[in-house]
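User: Study the fold:
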Amino acid sequence: MHFSTLLSAAFTIAIAYAAVNEPCVGSGGAPGTLPSTHFPSLTN
């Protein structure tokens, strides 16, 4: 597997995971436990 492919896959997974957890943040969940807090532009 090429490095850029691996990096792209990891980034896609991270974004997807953040998107899945976004409702928890939006509803006042515990953002400290969610990787989505690393993407503030997606959680607002």
